[in-house]
Design brief:
The structure is a single chain. The protein is about 30% helix and about 30% strand. Strands 1, 2, 3, 4, 5 and 6 form a six-stranded mixed beta sheet that branches. The protein has one domain. By secondary structure, it is α+β, with helices and mostly antiparallel strands. It is globular and about 40 Å long.
Amino acid sequence: MMKNVADWIDNVLHNNAVPTDIVAFCFNLYEESDSSWAMELVGTERFDLEDEDWACNEATDFGSRENLYNWKMECEWDEALAYMVNELKQYLSSGKYAELLKSKEGVGVGFVDGNIEILHSK
């Protein structure tokens, strides 16, 4: 499924310029119904390894809130998170916009009401 995740990220970042005040990116995950999961990408104006609330300083969702990445997977939330961590790490190693994402202070992923796993930081 990496190709689908990569295509979605490519589409989001291709169609939306990154504002100059963005210092970090966060992939927010949501649990939907019927073994469905969703993800959006936000840009934040703050990043702090010691304070996960940095992800709340959202400046843009790059239009991804209206165009969520959706996938089906029968599992618990932690397995869905582990799956997406793996997918995003692969993207950060070889994706089209990997260098853009890594050019900022940090990249994280997590459920909007949970902890954030840092995928990259400077």
